[in-house]
Amino acid sequence: MRSEKKSIFSWCLFDFANSAYTTIIITIAYAVIFPQLIAGPDKPGGNTFNYGNTIWGYALALSYLLTALLGPLLGAAGDKKNIRKKILFFSTTLCIAATFLLYFVKPGNILAGIIFIVLSNLGFSLTENFISSFLPDIAPREKIGRISGYAWALGYFGGLASIFIVYAVTGLDYRIENFNTLRYIGPVTALFFLVFSLPTFIYVKEKKNNQSSQQNESIFRAGFTRLIDTYRSISLHKELFKFLFAFFFISAGLTIVITFTAIYGKQVINLQGSSLVLFFVLLQITAALGSFIFGFIEDRIGAKKTINITLVLWIISITSIYFINEISKFFGITPISLFFISGGIAGICLGATQSSARALIAILSPPDKTGEFYGFWGLSGKLASLFSLVIFSSMIYFLGLKQSILLCVVFFAAAFIVMMYVKVEKGSPVKKMET
């Protein structure tokens, strides 16, 4: 394997590795364990978990606030001091260590659970910024869309593999009697991330810029001065910041979907045990296919049009889930069957939307500011996650989970409107055929 192909594969493999965290901890397993077993029901012996759901949302919101504050600063410092790979290593280690420590969180240890979730998700979120910043380094410009798609597709297969492994170890039986087995979810997920992230640090090389800071300059000072320089030249990057505004609404909707899908499936649709696992297997497979197929579509029609297509599909999918009883009755199918169909559509969009957004940042970023601009990407996404989780979690407390889901439709519709004003060709450092 030639060195450039080895570098591309190793970069893609990081998505395979870190997807175990977001799949198992944030989406399918700990998202159920924390509100139901750690925080417990709203009333002793009850079957509603609005308090736990709300605390879960606020904990993740805090982690996204920290990411929003640190992401651009560390990204700018990484560019200026040529230490993006070192920061990626540190954030990966933070995520792995805090995830492993979830083993020690027992029912009732709400504060400990919050601390380890905040730290692990902070580490994971920073890795997203920094691994993405290597995309322009390893991918030819004309193949950025498909390579981003390859990685995101591989990531969903990583999520699928982690589901099978965790299911084999724990059974994903969310009963308090099975808690001592469920505790192994943290260590198993951490080990998965550790093993499959190693090739990235061995084979992916960091391209050095020629404007690095003095070695004795602190990371935060280097990052701050770099951000000031970018702020002064913000008029040169208007299209990128327009897209980041659209991405704010995209991320707001995606955060709710990723964070509350398992909770919604179990508490509203009443998916149980193996049915919930099967749903997430379907979600991972369709997301992988969406990432792979739309990667090629994106290279043909452009990232902007690809994102807009997925936003329309998102609106259809979420609306059908909200009106699931009425629609399933009209077509003569069960609500669970319709939930699986809508989930399949959402899965296709999930991979395609995120992959295309990551590629579009690469297209709009100057070559010497990829770490910094992916930091802004992370800032937009994490502020959106913070914003959406606070609002959504509060809505759950007052309106319930089912009524609150329509907030996603509002976010995706807003993103579609803003995307109409993004002119990719005008904003790209290298002109690209897209209107």
Please give a handful of descriptors for the protein shown:
mainly alpha; Growth Hormone, Chain: A; 79% helix; globular; disordered C terminus
Description:
By secondary structure, the protein is an all-alpha fold. The chain has a single domain, classed as Up-down Bundle (Growth Hormone, Chain: A), CATH 1.20.1250. α2 packs across α3 (50-81) and α14 packs across α15. Residues 431-435 have low confidence and may be disordered. The chain is globular and about 60 Å long. It has helices spanning 3-28, 30-39, 50-81, 84-100, 110-132, 135-138, 144-170, 179-182, 185-203, 219-232, 238-267, 273-301, 303-322, 324-331, 335-364, 370-399, 401-404, 407-419, 424-427.
